[in-house]
């Protein structure tokens, strides 16, 4: 049987948890490979999510976040550094430019972002309009409709 790898779709979407969990269970997708910058997507509440990206070495001025048409784009670019002051002997902290895109489900909006201790936190919330939320329907008693039918027949 042919194996389909759905992990790229799963890790770049927010708010489609149930759909991709079912697909992952049906297909049994492999573990995802880490990419730059590493990130986590977590569900923090019933309708809230948080994307956390490890962006060590980047300041808030080096990072831009844009949300457009169900796509969240995070870009990071450090300005060129003049190397005349010091010579770098070993580079262990990556400072290359990056661009990461996340597909957002309908009604998922970015509520805010913060940068602390080298971690960029992007908070998301899913706000479904009242007209689309499930609602309870009252059930009438059968005795009332049967009495009306008898009265009409007589």
TrEMBL record:
Q: Please indicate if the UniProt record lists Cytoplasm as a keyword.
A: no
Instruction: Give the record's keywords alphabetically.
Output: Stress response
| InterPro entries registered for this protein in UniProt | A-crystallin/Hsp20_dom, ACD_IbpA/B, HSP20-like_chaperone
The UniProt record lists the SHSP domain at: 30-142
Q: Which branch of life, at top level?
A: Bacteria
Question: What family does the database annotate?
Answer: Belongs to the small heat shock protein (HSP20) family.
Q: What is this protein identified as?
A: Hsp20 family protein
Q: Which organism is it from?
A: Methylobrevis albus
Q: What is the lineage of its organism?
A: Bacteria, Pseudomonadati, Pseudomonadota, Alphaproteobacteria, Hyphomicrobiales
């Amino acid at each position: 049987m042919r194996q389909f790898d759905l992990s790229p779709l799963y890790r770049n979407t927010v708010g489609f948890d149930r759909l991709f969990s079912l697909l992952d269970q049906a297909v049994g997708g492999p573990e995802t490979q880490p990419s730059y910058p590493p990130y986590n997507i977590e569900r923090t509440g019933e309708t809230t999510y948080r994307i956390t990206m490890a962006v060590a070495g980047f300041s808030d001025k080096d990072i831009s976040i844009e949300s457009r048409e169900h796509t969240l784009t995070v870009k990071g670019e450090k300005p060129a550094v003049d190397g005349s002051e010091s010579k770098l002997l070993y580079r262990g902290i990556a400072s290359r430019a990056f661009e990461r895109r996340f597909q957002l489900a309908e009604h998922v909006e970015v509520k805010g972002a913060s940068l602390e201790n080298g971690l960029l936190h992007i908070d998301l919330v899913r706000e479904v309009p009242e007209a689309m939320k499930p609602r309870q329907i009252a059930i009438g008693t059968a005795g009332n409709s049967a009495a009306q039918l008898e009265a009409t027949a007589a």
